[in-house]
Write a structure and sequence with these properties.
mainly alpha; two-stranded antiparallel sheet; 22 helices; about 0% strand
């Protein structure tokens, strides 16, 4: 395969990389005044990268001698990633103007684009080295984004904690990769799978454990979740929304690709790790959220909880299970971004952000539309029918049952009932408590439109998308098998 064909397969990453470099120069020349223009241009670049997916990138096969895979699985993941990144940019300008006392810095959209390049490489990785380079590119941009509000001590603390713990996780992952390479003699996924298919040594088993431990940190699965509540609370709210959506999708779907393509013959070994991480994440996410008073910390524990549910589909180890994970992540992104868009509306009369759950008291009487939207988000996250979030949980548990994991599915369903408590507590606060001081009205058509769209998608209207979503996710899952 010649260089031209290889470059065509990686066209989305090329579009994002060139766009980020051009916008970086524009930011240097235009200064602070160029922030909004750069933000909208960055969204256009993401749309362009999305359009570039529907060429050789969607099914061209393997590029650069197996380092990069252009298949339907990667396309599904990148559509979610680019969409979440675009929303994270669109929700940002007003937040920084009212909260940080300054306009959005022009570097912010550039960092989002560079992070998207890394995430694209992660989900298209066909080699352990591509995996690591993509993951580090995404992480380096994320460390800066977490500490974007330099005058805010919480933001600086969030960035520092994320960096230190992220470096530790990267070391664990790199050690696992080195073990896999040392005992298999290769870093390519296909060749690694051949090594695991043989009489693999304990060294390969240890490599598997360390690789999964490093990836568990990136998707904030228990027991590597410790950074999530502090970083989610301290980072600027649009950044937190970004962390809870696009990087989460990239990390989980990267783990799916590694588990199925590189370590598929060792399914019995990694399934035990995944089942433990899944049940522990569901349980700890539910228990940790119960006593929270800060809405962003609660959503951090909610994200840990949802990682556990997504891993239920992976534990099945089947094509149906992978398809279920893809469907779950598509719906999860809408629930997460919708929730954080509503958190952005929580402002006092002076424009200061309010993050306490108590401030939601009686919101059904002071801001009925916003209360209804948040209730839809919470019921969906809890998996209560007839909202679309119920279908997300149904498909992953059904995949586990079809794979014969009956006890595992039963325990997961029981724990999901426990987790519903803290979501319902928010609804109770909004609809049954005495009204607190009303939030200041926010007139932003972009944010309002995105909230309305996410609410509509999570309503029973979302069920009309099931046929298309099922066909698309099945085709994407088949690419791994």
């Amino acid at each position: 395969m010649d260089l031209h064909q290889n470059l065509l397969m990686t066209l989305p990453e090329i579009v994002l990389s060139v766009g980020a470099l051009v916008l970086m120069m524009a930011a240097a020349w235009g200064g602070q005044a160029s922030s909004r223009a750069i933000g909208w241009t960055a969204v256009a670049v993401l749309i362009g990268a999305g359009i570039a997916l529907f060429g050789p990138s969607s099914g061209g096969g393997v590029a650069f001698d197996g380092l990069y895979k252009a298949d339907a699985f990667a396309v599904f993941a990148k559509v979610l990633i680019y969409g979440a990144a675009a929303v994270a940019i669109l929700m940002t300008p007003r937040f920084f103007e009212r909260t940080a006392g300054d306009a959005m810095r022009p570097e912010y959209p550039v960092l989002i684009l560079l992070s998207a390049v890394g995430m694209g490489m992660m989900v298209s990785a066909g080699d352990m080295l591509t995996l690591y380079v993509g993951l580090e590119l995404q992480s380096l941009a994320a460390y800066v984004l977490a500490s974007m509000m330099r005058r805010d001590l919480r933001s600086a603390e969030a960035g520092l904690k994320y960096f230190v713990l992220g470096a530790l996780a990267s070391g664990i992952l790199l050690y696992g990769i080195s073990l896999v390479y040392g005992f298999s003699g290769t870093t390519g996924f296909d060749a690694v799978a051949t090594a695991y298919a043989g009489a693999h040594s304990k060294g390969l088993l240890f490599g598997l454990v360390f690789v999964f431990a490093g990836l568990a940190f990136k998707m904030s699965a228990v027991p590597f979740h410790m950074w999530t509540p502090d970083v989610y609370e301290g980072a600027p709210t649009p950044v937190t929304a970004f962390f809870g959506s696009a990087p989460k999708v990239a990390a989980i779907l990267l783990t799916v690709r590694v588990a199925v393509e590189a370590m598929g013959p060792a399914t019995f070994e990694w399934r035990q790790i995944v089942i433990f991480a899944s049940l522990a994440s569901i349980a700890l996410g539910a228990a940790g959220a119960i006593g929270q008073t800060n809405i962003k910390r609660l959503l951090a524990y909610s994200s840990i909880n949802n990682v556990g549910f997504a891993l239920v589909g992976l534990a099945a180890g089947t094509e149906q299970g992978v398809s279920a994970v893809l469907i779950y992540m598509a719906i999860y992104i809408v629930m997460t971004l919708g929730s954080f868009l509503i958190v952005l509306q929580m402002k006092d009369a002076d424009g200061n952000a309010i993050e306490s759950i108590a401030s939601l008291s009686g919101m059904s009487r002071t801001r009925p539309g916003l209360a209804f939207a948040l209730a839809v988000m919470m019921f969906s996250l809890a998996g209560i029918p007839p909202l679309f979030g119920f279908y997300a949980k149904f498909v992953v548990f059904w995949a586990a049952v079809q794979a014969g994991l009956f006890v595992y599915a039963a325990i997961g369903i029981a724990l999901s009932a426990v987790g519903a408590y803290y979501y319902l507590r928010i609804v109770k606060t909004m609809y049954f408590d005495e009204p607190a001081t009303a939030f200041a009205p926010v007139e932003d058509r972009v944010e309002g439109g995105l909230i309305a769209l996410s609410t509509a998608l999570l309503s029973p209207l979302g069920y009309f998308l099931i046929p298309a979503l099922a066909i698309w996710s099945s085709a994407a899952a088949k690419a791994l098998f």
